[in-house]
Amino acid sequence: MLTRLKRNYADTPGQFWLMFFGKMFADIGTTMVWPFLMIYASETLDLPLAAVTSLVTISASTGLISSILAGPIIDRLGRKWAMVVGLIGAGLGYIFLSRANTYLAFALIQGASGLFGPLYNVGSDAMLADLFPMEKRADAFALVRMAHNVGVAAGPALGGFVLSRSYRYGMYGAAAGLILYGLAMLIFARETLPQRTTQEKENLLMQLRGYWEALKDRAFMGLVGSFTLLQMTASLVWVLLSVYLKTQFGIGEQLYGWLPTTNALMVVFFQVLVTRSMNPFPSVKVMTWGAIFYVFAPLVIALSNGFWGFWLGMVIMTMGELVVVPRSSAYAANLAPVDKRGRYMSLYGLTWNVATGISPVLGGLTSDWIDPRAPWWGGVLIGVVAVLAFRTLHQRQPEEQTAVF
Does the CA dihedral 143-344-385-300 come out positive or negative? Predict the structure, then answer.
């Protein structure tokens, strides 16, 4: 299948394939651990769920700060070095995490790790936008998402097997994948930062002020707000579901691992097809359709009592991801002025940090104080609000902005 992809995209820049395969192999390592991290922290620390999920909030908070600073740094100094530092820093974080055994140690490591993720993510988004013209960006983001999910297809299934025996070996694997990808970018990648004129004279403070233009962009900020709501529902599933299944239904790491693997396989086999089939339709309308799936996914999880019900919930959420995620990334990149692309994509990247900083800890609190199913009913409510937000965004956008693809 990968050979066929390379043949169909023969005119694609070679650097894209470095990013494609590097992302794939790095994510095999990280997804051996990431879906199970709350189980590991919960069992290691023996604390209430709200306290454990606060670790995600710490990481998200430092990630939010990093994302804000990453945009102007990437616009001024370039994409490549930010990506290299982000990858290697994140890899070292997994090595330190393998030795942590107190809440303070977890908090410090999660806080430090949160600083590195946005450097790679924002740099990667900006580099993809640099490499491809507007009309090809949706396909490019879809392909990178597919590469990510090839890794996710293998990682959790392998992680369920490895981590049931030793979490430490899994974290070493995650670190190796990230660091090797970072070294490959360092050696083989070229800088893609467009030629600048007046921006070369701007200092970092002046570039930080450039966020004001993005914040005044109603179309862009409407997208950021609407997509954040979807990410809040998604973060509940990715952060809390593994703990919920193990503590409430006795479904352990090995069986749970097939849920993210299902998500990944669906993306691998259907992402490009879905993205291309949606290309004729206006972007915000497509995202509105996709948001509806984020209402039904937590609803199914809330009503389920066995593995196949939870599996169905994951399938439904993945259907929404297939429709929304690549299209929203491309839409954000297309709204961004060339000289402020890093800052725009940085604000767009905040959606995940904000969502994971709020949603899982609220889910943990409602689970501890009300009922273990309460977070999923909250996810249903957030999903409904997301659909309404995208619907409002669609009604307010002029036709030429929603039909650029």
Answer: positive
